[in-house]
Structure formats: C-alpha cells, structure tokens
Amino acid sequence: MDDHTADYWVRQIRIGATVAAVVTAIGGVRVTMAWAQNARWWLLLVALAVVAQLALVRAPWGRWIRSERFRSRLLLWWYAEMPILVLFGVADPHGAMLYLTAGVLLLITAAALWSPRTVVTLGVLTGIGYLILLPIKANTGPGATLVLGAMFACVVALTGINAQSRRRLDARRRAAEQRAETLLAASADAVLAIGRDGTLQYVSPSVRQLLGYRVAELSGRRLNEILPGDRLLELNDFMAAMLALPVGGSQRTETRLRHADGSWVYVDVMGTNWIHDPDLRAVVVSLRDISARRELEEQLSRQAFTDSLTGMPNRARFRERLGDAVTAGADADAPVTVLLLDLDDFKLVNDNLGHSAGDELLTTIAERVRAQVRPDDVLARLGGDEFAILLHDLDPADASPLAERLLAAVREPIRLASRDITCSLSIGIASTVSSGERVGAEQLLGNADLAMYAAKRAGRNAYAIFDPTMTMSVLEEAQQRADLEHALEHDEFRVLYQPVVDMNTQRVTAVEALVRWQHPRDGLLGPYHFIAHAEANGLIVPLGRWVLRQACSQLARWRAESPAAAGLKVNVNLSARQFQYAGLVDDVAAALADAGLDPASLTLEITESMLMADITTAKETLHALRRLGVRLAIDDFGTGYSSLSYLKQLPVDVIKIDKTFVDEVHIDEDDVALVDAVAGLGQALKMQTVAEGIESSEQWDTLRRIGIDHGQGYLFGRPVSAGDIADLLEQPESVKHL
C-alpha cells in the first residue's frame, strides 16, 4: 500500500469511527427519552461503545492499515455493526426508522473503502434485517414492505456503484503514478522532494543507479542523517538559498555526493522551490551524474599542468608554484632558489636515434634528477629538454652541492637503442636575494635562465650562479634579432608542407605550412632554433605574415597547375604575439585577396594557451576571422587549460589532438579513453578532429576505429617542399605516401 492510499484509508476509518460514535451517542439519547425505565441499563453499554469508538479515532491506523491481514480483519467491524443495529431496532419503539438511517450510514462508510462486492454483501445483509423489522416495528403490510425494500435495494445499488467508481478512479491514479514512476526510474536523473526540515519526502527509483541506495533506505530520512558532517554547512546554505527563491524559482549548482560503495559521484543539481505549493510543500531537486564530464575536464586540466612524458609539473604549474613561493618567502623573509637545468646537445639524440629514444632519455634523466631533490622541493619539466627545481629556505651558495650531484648523476651512461649514451647538463642557479635585493618570480626565473646560458657558454656540463653582470647576454639577444632581420630581408626562410589526410582513404585533404630557416652558416634550421627568439623580440609578426602570404599564394599555384588540388586546403599556425596583433585580420584578408583564394581554403591554427590567456579578446579576434570566412582550428588540444564551457562558445571548426595523446594510443587504454572523449566532444560540437604525430599503422588503426576524421604525421608524410606536394597530388590514391 502506497502512502497516498494509506492516508486515504486512515482518513476514512477515522471519519467512520467518528460517525459511529455520533450515531451511538444519538442511540443513547433515544434510550434515555423513549425506553422504559427498566431498559435504561443499555446506557452503560452505549457509553462504553461511544468511548471506545472515540478512542479508535486516535489509534495509530497509519501503521496498522499497511498490513493486508489487518485490513481483512477490519471488515469484521462493519459486519459486527449489523446485529447490533438489529437488536437496537427490535428494542426501540421506532426501531425500523432508526435502523434504516443507521444502515444507510453503514453502507456509505463501507463504500468509501471496500470493494463493490463487499458493499453489496453488506447491503443485502442489512436489507434482510430491515425487511425483518418492517412488519414487526412499523406494522407495514406486504406491499409497503416490498416498496420500502425496493427503495433500500436502490440505496444498496447506488453505494455499490459509488464503490466501483472509486475503485476505477484509484486504478487510474495508480496507473498514472506507475507511469510516472516508470519514467523516473528509466531516467538517468534522480529526483528528490525535500521538506522544509530536510526530510526526503520522495525519492525516485533512479537514485539506485546514481548513488547505489534503495528508495526505502532514503525515503522519510533527513538529509543531515545521510550526508557526512563536513557537508552539512553546504546543505544548510543550499536549503537557505532555495527557500529564499520565489515559488517555482530554480537554481543550479554542482557538487559531489558519496555513493553507497564509498566512492564520490559528481552531480549537477537543479533545485526548484515548491515549498509554498499546497500540493508539494517541498524543494524538488534533480540530480544528474556529471562524473564523466568532470573526469574529462580534470584530465584535461591535469594535462594543462602536468608534463605527459615525465608526470612532473609543467611550465604553467611551475610558474604558479614559483609565484606562491616568492610571495610567501617575501612575507617570511626567507630566500627562494631556482635551479634551471638544460640537457646539452639533446637535439643530436633526437636526430640520430629518433624521438622515441629522445623521450626515453628524458624519462631516465627526470628519474635521476628526482632522486637528488628533497620531497618538498618542486621539480618540473618546462618543455623540451629543460627542467627546473624550486628550493625553499636555501641560499644559492648552498645549492652548489645539489648542482654537483645532479651533474654527476646525469653523466652516468644511459643505454639507448643498443648504445651507451653519456649526457651532461648546464645548470643555472638564482635566488630572490642574488642581486642584493629581492626580485619577483619572473625576474628570478629570468636570472636562472641567464645563469644557465652562462654555464653553456662556459663549456657546458657545469653550473653557474647568477651574477648581475650576466645581463650582458642582452647584447647576444640583440645580435640574434639582427640575424633574424637579415634573414627576413634576404629571403632565407623556407616554407615546407606536411600532408593532412582523410583517416579512412588517406586522401590528402590539406597541408600544414611549416617555416624553416635556411641559415647561411648552420644549414636548414627547425623552428626550435628561431621561433622563440622571433617571438621574444617581436619579429614573429612579420615572419608570420610572410608565411601566411607564401602559403596562400602556393595553394593558388597548386590549384592553377593541377585539377587534383581543387579541394586542397592549407593550414597556417598563428603565434601568440601574432594572434594578439591588432592588424591580424587585415593581414589575413590581404593574403587571401592577393592570392585570389576563397577564405574557406585557409585554416588558421591557434593553441589553447593563446586562447585562455585572454578569453574575451580571443573570442573577438576569432569571430572577426570567422566573419572573413576562414576556418579555425585549436592546435595541440589538451596541452593547455581545456575549458569545455569556453570551447562551445568559440567559432572553432577543427580540434587538433596533440601528439602526446597519440604516441601510446594503441597500447594505453587511458589515452584511448581520452581521445575517444575528445572525438565525442568534436562530434557533439560539430567540429572536425585531426590527430597529430601519427607514426605507425597501429596508431592509425586505433584512431580510425575511434572515429578521428583526419590525421597528420610521419606515417603519411614528413614536411616537404612545394614541388614534392605537387608530385604527391598527381599520384594515384593508393600510392600517396611520403
């Protein structure tokens, strides 16, 4: 029996008990007024009956009535009333008339609870008693008795019909409630109705799937009995906020709840205030499981602050920790020391043994360095072959023994690709008090960088402690700027193109423009040798403009020379400073107009970190570029701070999944799950997905099975000249491979 039905039964039984007490009391008045003196001893029985019936009004029917056995026995109450009515009718001078009224009341109260068959049975028995009393007490003849009996039969039929109508209404109500329960049970959301005092008045069956509790375990309990003590303040604040809303007002929040198995479940909470609604009088709360979404966001956030290769904090996290340490050190008047470590000649390992061997080398070096630092020190990989150590309460002079231990540890031979490799470090040391006065976090890191380059200039495999005279390196930077300006003026830069292919057909759909420096002395240099310097001294803007114009004009030439290039697109990377440049949109428009290209042929690639540096300005710039008609891509997705809420607001067409996700996607289930989540995110936001750094058929097969749209990497082609791309486009589909 559900709560609604139980409440109805309790209410009707109490009404029936009250009616019985009133009718019995009226019978007592009748005994007093019309019965003979020697029969008034009945008053004692009548008084006891009235007291007993009034006591039954307050009985705990709510607990008793849920028992089916008790309800079947309760029917005896109605049957027991009939012989009492007959005896009273025989004893009273006007018993037939009183019997009729009491009998009708008996049938009416029975029709409110029992089945039509039971009501009719009671009516027949009551009618028999009435037909017996009529000739005796009312002196009616056969005709009158027949007429009165027929009228009483009509009353019986009417109460039976009422009982049947009530049963049908109850059945419809239960069916409607069952449908609602079925829908709620099938929903992934759990629905709670919480009273003003925090009592759970209703819990939908889907709470079992969400939190692992059965409905019976929660219904009727108060939330402060279920939630741990440290969550009560949050609960009180939530209920206070909900009760302050107008009727029907809603509020959304996110929190986490403890599952029955002890784990945490992150939920989206939508609460609506119906406390003042007379039909509900509760706060209705909908809970939706967002654990998967939160896990993805946390994974992306960890990726933003953790180096995927070594598991160490990355540059962003290190800068954050350094800023906190410098602020705390200034308050406590304690020194903060930074060691900047750079692996000497690491490029040779990558060039000679490959990137896999380079990654293995970096992992080994990271473990050796980690073994030399204290647990409370912060060790981070800033990128490439550069590491940093943050030391608290340590003078730079006392950091020298640590630097010597690090140099010795790294010099130990490392076995790579069947060869013993010996490496060395260049270490720069700086402190917040290195120059005699306190410095900020950025300057401290810059000082350590100057000291590290001083160690390199001194012959490498050494350490150097920052000295203010090291600022002479600024002159070297000026020389680097002059070299870059000379390169721009004398056309020393080259643009290579790497194919981007359809994952299913391997058809070349686009090429990515990649700049190289044809140095007159050092030969062809990759971007690691000059992009950072160009970014630092501002030359990246004219260099990026030149690459953009070269790429657009080259695409126009391909299309003019070969029908195979009709649908080809070109991707161009934007640097951080170039993206912030006020004339970027005009530069893009001019490059497209001069080349005679439709804007949709050009895809501009922007990294996540560039977007999140100033999301408001970034959105304005992206929308301005979108109005031109160019396509937009987020490059290296997952290596910056990935905010899903911002992503859906940006006019982005393509998500480029960073190589770090791809390297082990064919053997690492975590990478598979993360790439699959990003693919699903792309589909949900109607964005294309491109996987970078594909180097093996196993990676290709896995990514294709996940549903990645396009791929890029050495498996499909290395960066090559424009002529090689033209040859590639002319080849049959089955042999397009560089």
Automatic annotation (TrEMBL):
Span of domain PAS: 176-231
Domain PAC: 251-302
Domain of life: Bacteria
SMART domains in UniProt: EAL, GGDEF, PAS
GGDEF domain span: 334-468
NCBIfam families attached to this UniProt entry: GGDEF, sensory_box
Protein name: Two-component system response regulator
Lineage: Bacteria, Bacillati, Actinomycetota, Actinomycetes, Micromonosporales
